[in-house]
Amino acid sequence: MSNIRKIVLMWQILFVALDIHSQTTIKGRVFEGKEPAFAASVFLTPHRGVNTITDDKGDFILEVPDSLYTDTLVVSYLGCKDYNVLLSNWKDSCVIYLVPNQSATTLSEVVVQADPIASKEFAVSQLSKSSIYMTPSASADPLRAVALQPYSTSTEESANPQLRGSTSDYNRVFVNGVPIKNPVRNQQLNGIGNFSLFSADIIGKQFIYPSNPPLEYGNSIGGIVSLNTTDNLTEKHETNLSLSLANVGALHSTQLNDKTFFQIFGNLQKSRLYKLLNSSSLDYLESFSSTDAGVNFRTTVSSKSYINGYAYIVKESYLAERGMYNYLGMQDARNLRNFNILNYRLHTKAGVLGVNAAWDMSKSKYFYGNISDTTLQQNAFISISYKHYFPQKITISVGADYEYNAYNYHGTYPVSIYDMADVTSKQYSKEKLHSTKYEAYAYGKWMLENWIVGASVRQVFLIGKNPSLSYQVNVKYNPNRKNSLIASLGQYNALCSPTYYVRQFDSARSRQMSLDWNCNLTQKCELKAAVYWKKESLPQYFINNREAHKVENRIVGVEMCAKYSWSYFELTGSYSYINAKMKYNNLTFNSDNNFRHMAKFMLSYLNPKIINISLSCLYRGGLPYTPIVSRNGNLAYGNLNSERYNDYFTVDLSLNRYFKILNTGIIPFVTITNVTNHSNQQYIYYSQNYEKPFVKLFNKRLVYVGFSVRL
After folding, report:
1. How far apart are CA 459 and CA 470, in angstroms?
2. CA nearest 262: which of 253, 250, 270, 251?
3. Which of 137, 445, 492, 666 could form a disulfide with 454 if both were Cys (CB 3.0 to 4.6 A apart)?
């Protein structure tokens, strides 16, 4: 408690000592005649880096620093005259009606902002930078911020996205149109990672398709998280420095000329101070460290084309205590990873051509008990796509992908997977796996007066296996300006990557149906609801016979969400119900993530002149697990997933404030997770003879403090 008092005292001193500088959020709605203008470009001039696009209802939100309030707000939309208004004359929640433009002189200016992905209006959610920063449990992490959304069914305190009942193995993360496998750091044996590989500072847009994703995205039977890096800078030169308990970081952005900009960043993480402040909650943690660096650049080749490049490298280590079966010991994980993404876009008079290329490689080492594993992984990805705008608001998108994956394993492993304590009971193994996959897709979209209809097919050709066909349909209906409905169904195919337990490429399939309703009841109140059904066919590892088998996983879920804003406050509440059952060999049992009920709440007070505070709360039912009954020469298990852990509950708090001293901006922040110090059960391990179970808890209360400096 003394640490918390010191933090409060620090904030009181800051309130008295420093002057205040703020940002202002402006909101508006754009119409083309009587219809909402979807994907209209909204930006400032001359600071074009402050920009956004309108959603399918024509709404937009733009965060403007006070220093730019002499700029002009511009709304640009294909076929219409640009709308210009001085920010000093702006009226909040203004409705803008665009006037048709008879000439096409502004076409290239508007089209250059387009993207080869044609299906963004079917995304259920779009997360902004501010929502990422103000989610207490997110730690400014784009993927961790997804966990507090109503469609997230995450059961781990991690960055791995779990969407509408599908586990993280079957949801995909895309960056600039390229799939990124294992998009997390501090990864453990089960594939769970504490943080993602991405920084919110370089992410411009983030779209989430929690189920029934359009088949412009491939290799997913669950949902999609699509990240796009920054496409423009707010300042010609900007440097951000950060210092916190576990991290020292820097980000520098420079506009070299009218055509080229780049962002370069780096971070150094050490656990010593973080563990010192939270020693009682992190008693299992010995240490963690990481060094990472990245660069994002964009250059305009011509008035209608550009090249974007993103490269990232990280070296990390993680040493912590872990219990598994009847063994308790230190797990030592080390990883070196580098991935590079290159994008080319060419905007024609009526379309967009996109070419993507990526190379991803990593070398990881893992030591635990008598396990000594080294894994080399390589992935190459190339894709080409073209989106064409036809008259009558018809859009057709076609594309093809090539992907190569290679895994090289070698090391010593236990003879019996549960016997990790006996150093004599191990064997050396070496294995190489690889796959080559070709995919082709076609997507069509037709925008009517109140309807948007989209349909897509994707054919997968896998060397050595039969081809598989995926298909999908989306229908969006806007009965009025306040309401929208999205109905979706489809069949999806994916190739599962090898894991520690299942070292082979295996196929997975799902059939899905979903119905999403969204209602902007007033400017201050928003309601959402969804129902969905999934039937997944996927490989499942069974601990009772230590083999992987194809199972049928059926998921039924309901979501409800409400958000209300007033003055400086915003309150969001959601409830989710999920019933997930697996069927194998005429047996039906609970799926691993069948938590039944989940409720989430977040209350935010966002007043830049005083303080920004967010308080979040998450409750869910306990997860099922399979108990170990005894050991008589071998393991004996109870019924599959017949027992449950206790219910999970956590309250998290985040505080920050923006100050300005001379020309330097300073943002001190405090994050407290599990404020109530609740004991949440994570997993069970056993004594050596399996007679006594031990419960490992999730993290107890953790305090994290730091500040960032903007030069």
Report:
1. 6
2. 253
3. 445
**For 562-572, what is each residue's pLDDT tens digit?**
999 988 899 99
Pick among 3.40.50.300, 3.90.79.10, 3.40.140.10, 2.60.40.1120: CATH of 21-113? 2.60.40.1120
What CATH number was assigned to the domain covering residues 121-710? 2.40.170.20
Distance CA 207, CA 215 (A): 15
The per-residue pLDDT for range 687-706, each reduced to its tens digit, is 888 888 999 999 999 999 99
Nearest-angstrom CA–CA distance, 271 and 290: 10
Q: How many CB atoms lie within 10 A of CB 209?
A: 26
Cβ(127)–Cβ(206) below 8 Å: yes
β-sheet bridge partners, residue 248: 243, 268
> What is the DSSP annotation of 581-599?
EEEETTEEEE-TT---EEE
Least confident of 203-207, 253-257, 407-411, 627-631: 627-631
* C-alpha angle 520-525-529 in degrees, rounded to nearest 5: 60
pLDDT for res 523: 80
The CA dihedral of 497, 500, 501, 505, to the nearest 10 degrees, is 20
Q: With beta carbons less than 8 A apart as the criterion, state whether 319 and 293 touch.
A: no
Question: So what's the pLDDT on residue 615?
Answer: 94
Spatial separation of the C-alpha atoms in residues 527 and 520, rounded to whole Å: 6
CA-CA distance, 381 to 343, in Å (whole number)? Answer: 12
Phi-psi region of 334 (alpha: psi -120 to 50; beta: other; left: phi over 0): beta
Question: Residue 641 in contact with residue 624, Cβ under 8 Å?
Answer: yes
Evaluate whether 285 touches 271 at the Cβ level (below 8 Å).
yes
